Each structure stands twice: as C-alpha cells, then as structure tokens.
Amino acid sequence: MPTISAPRAVLDGRMTGPVTVAVEDGVIRAVRLADGLESAPADVVLVDGVLTAGLVDIQINGAFGVDFSSADDDGWDRVAASLPSTGVTAFQPTYITAPLGALVSGLHTAIEARERQEASDWSLGVAARILGVHLEGPFLSPVRHGVHEKRFLAEPAPEAIDRLLGAPGHEMLTMVTLAPELPGALDAIRRLTRAGVRVSVGHTDATADQITAAADMGATLVTHIFNAQRGLAHREPGVPGATMADRRFYCGLIADLHHVAPEVCSLVWKGARGRVVLVTDAIAAAGMPPGNYELSGIPVELGADGVPRNADGTIAGSALTLDQAVRNMISLGLPAAQVVEAASRIPADALGRTDLGRIAVGARADLVWWSDDFHPRRTWVDGREAEAPTTAATLPGQRESLAVSP
Q: Does the residue 355 lie in any domain?
C-alpha cells in the first residue's frame, strides 16, 4: 500500500503536524498523525511544505487558451491535463448564456470529454476530473446580465426546463445559475433541485425576500457574490446580504482582488464563515499572456492588469487560477488551512461530493503538495501523479510517485 508523509497537512480545517496518508486503488485508506517523520516511514517523503486535498473549481469557462463552448477534443484534454499544475483535481466546466439548443449540445460535448478521459487508462496523462456542467444562464436578469449577451436571455419556462432535464447527456447537468425573480423561476428551482441539480442565484436583481423564497424552493448557492447582482444596502440586504445571512447558501467568491475588493473579500469571509467557495470564473485567458481571447464567441481582451474585458469595458470572467485565489486570500491575513478548504472541501460539499476535497479515509486520493508560500509543487489524482510544472522540476524527490498498478 503506497504511502506519503508530510511535515504539515490540512485536515478538517486545521493545520496539523506530521501526517502519513496511505493510498490503495485511488482511494485514501488510512490517515495517521505522527510525532515525527521517523515514526511514520513512507514510500514518498515530503520534507517540507504542506499536503492538502486537491482543489475543486465549480465555475470555470476555460483556461490555457481554451474556451469550453467551442473547444475540440484536444482543447478539453489540454485543460484537464493542465489544471493539476494549479492544484485543481476536479472541475465543473461552465457555459455562459447562449441559445438553449447550444447549451443542450454542450452537455453532450462535456459527457463525451469525460467518457474519453475516463476510458483513456491514463494514456492522455493524469487529468483533473470533470464533475459535470454548470450552466450560467440563460435564465438571467436583463438588468444584471453583465457580459452575457442580452439577446440570448430567456425565462425559465416549464418547456425550457423540460428540455434541459430530458436532453441527451442531462446527467451531466450538475448546476444552474438563474435569477429567482424571473417569471417561473421558483418552480424551475423546485424542479431542478428535485432532479439533483444544484441551483445558484446569480445575475439577478432579486430582493432579499426573493432570495429567501429561492432558498425555500431549494437554491443553495450564490454565483460570484457582489458581482452582477442587487447590492448590499442598509435597509435592503440585496443578494449579498441575504445569502451571507442565510446559512442555506454557499457563497461563490472570485478572489482575484479585482472583481471584489480585498476589504469586501474579508467581509464575505466573516459574513459567510465556513460557506465561502473560492471560484475562478476563469476564461481562455487564464494561464496565458495578455492578448485577445474569446468567451462563448465574445471577443475579450486580457490587459496588463490581468483582468479580461469585452469591447465596452465590462469584466468578462477572469484570468485567475485557483491556487492564486488561495494565495490572495491568505495574503489578507486569513487562516491558511481554512482558505485551502474554501477551495477544496467546501466546493465539494456544495455539490454533494463528500468523496472529494478532503484528506479522509474513503475519499479519492486527490492530493496537492504545496511549498511553504503556497505554490503547488506536485499533484495527484486518484493517487497518480500529474506531470509537474516546470518550476518544480528540480525539487527534491520530484520523480517519486503514489501510483498503484492498474
């Protein structure tokens, strides 16, 4: 049974001392705290840094030059194979507003990508797992649509929900962002959640009362809190106030420190303690140099400030990677172990995936070894090591692996 030991680890939201993790058939079989590395011999010994569970990104439109809405097979595989270099071991590809038929086709494209990667027997390389599809639209507010094309917005009419839930590949639909104040939205939330789809409120002009009504119907998340939604006021809590106050909601936060100011990131952290989900909302520009990219066919320019914008200057997703979001939040003075969990265990819990995002017996052996300043050094998916980033090529013990025989 291969084992890995580390001088520090994140377990149950705490930074612990030395730990040894045993892996078999891609699953964590034992987790042992030790008084010292000498008392816990292992196949792979990490001499410094921190061992954590793999990160889980539940809102990512693309990265590394690839936009999921138009990606070919190679593009999907490239993103999945590259994400582990940022510590991400599982992700929820996101499509923004488009004609409903295109979104339905996108579900089928995503299931093909997941099936191809799962059937590859690692011949494509170790890749982050595709969890399912997040549809961010088209059921959004016409006054809070942001970069989404207004011409494609729609109301969540029963026939539209029928089409989504009955589409080939509908089992890939794991999350929908919608505006709960739209006609038919509350019934749509009820139907989607009963079908096992997570519903997030977002791109919405809803009042606090309407947000509460959405939660009563089963909504459990808010998409990129404070962005593209009715704001926080002292008599009308709006979307941020209502979702931070209501413990039924997980709060998605783009912590690039541009979408939300550092002070407000800290406010969200305190207001939704234990329920903050760090997301990237990344587009094709993530991991790429400044230049011109696309988001679902919309031309976007990534400037020198690292923020992608469309032609009229509207922020269009982000160029953020999830490991950078972790570093950004830690830089605000927040507890490192809890920040890591906001990018691992909490997003996994938000999707009901208690087998991911944690170092615990029975969980998938998705692991990240970080440097002391929280840059990923090595990443494992199902106990198999992903190709290391070039910056880590000379690290001690670089080539040891947790891989088990197929």
A: no
